[in-house]
From TrEMBL:
The gene is rph. This is Ribonuclease PH. It catalyses: tRNA(n+1) + phosphate = tRNA(n) + a ribonucleoside 5'-diphosphate. Homohexameric ring arranged as a trimer of dimers. Signal peptide: none annotated. It is an enzyme of class 2 (transferase). Belongs to the RNase PH family. The keyword Isomerase does not apply.
Length: 240
């Protein structure tokens, strides 16, 4: 039995709420159970210096956790004077994931910044950030296309992410903190709505796990991401 009482193949309660920031071109509050991540998208009509005069755009991300997003207070990284390696790794992952479904040439010399702020953490903050970040990105691109900043919405697919792991020897979907902190193995899967693999991060926390166990995790992830993409699509359809 999972601590939450969920079936092995059951996601937490998922919500992708829009209309949560009146200033940003796109915004989504991604709620995966008790993990809540606010994702905002800012569109800038300029690109980094290394992309100037190339005709291509850029999508990048920043990620951070609020001091009381966890059960004890953590100092802001700005107060410590530098980002942790974990933060840098996660925000690069978010950026790579969103660029995987963006036609940067069609975007033109425009940059979209996705800010992902963890309001409350209970496992899976990076997967919630990617899934909600896509909704914020899509909303922002629609809005600026309507304003004439870009000619088309340069998305070539959807992208979402989910965690899976071996909990007490059983492959389970969408780990919360109680499972993640004691899992024998855990993995994060980033995939498109058509099943394309963007990135997989997997680690054995105790003993190495078998290929058959990995394939079981992959199957759970595919099913979970299909569900998440359906929620993304329904959320964006509600904005039309």
């Amino acid at each position: 039995m999972r601590p939450s009482g969920r079936r092995p193949d059951q996601l937490r309660a998922i919500a992708l709420d829009t209309g949560v920031n009146k200033h940003a071109e796109g915004a989504c509050l991604a709620r995966f159970g008790d993990t809540h991540v606010l994702c905002t998208a800012t569109v800038e009509e300029r690109v980094p210096p290394w992309l100037r005069n190339t005709g291509k755009g850029w999508v990048t991300a920043e990620y951070g956790m609020l001091p009381r997003s966890t059960n004890t207070r953590t100092d802001r990284e700005a107060a410590r004077g530098k980002q942790s390696g974990r933060t840098q790794e996660i925000q690069r992952l978010i950026g790579r994931s969103l660029r995987a479904v963006t036609d940067l040439a069609a975007l033109g010399e425009v940059q979209v910044r996705i800010d992902c702020d963890v309001l409350q953490a209970d496992g899976g903050t990076r997967t919630a950030a990617i899934t909600g970040g896509y909704v914020a990105l899509a909303q922002a691109l629609r809005r600026v296309q309507a304003r004439g900043v870009i000619k088309t919405v340069p998305l070539i697919g959807q992208v979402a992410a989910i965690s899976c792991g071996l909990y007490e020897g059983t492959p389970v979907l969408d780990l919360d903190y109680a499972e993640d902190s004691t899992a024998q193995a855990d993995a994060n899967f980033v995939m498109t709505n058509t099943g394309g693999i963007v990135e997989i991060q997997g680690t054995a926390e105790t003993t190495p796990f078998e290929e058959s166990e990995f394939l079981a995790l992959m199957a759970l992830a595919r099913a979970g991401i299909t569900e998440l993409c359906a929620v993304q699509a329904a959320t964006l359809a509600g904005l039309e």
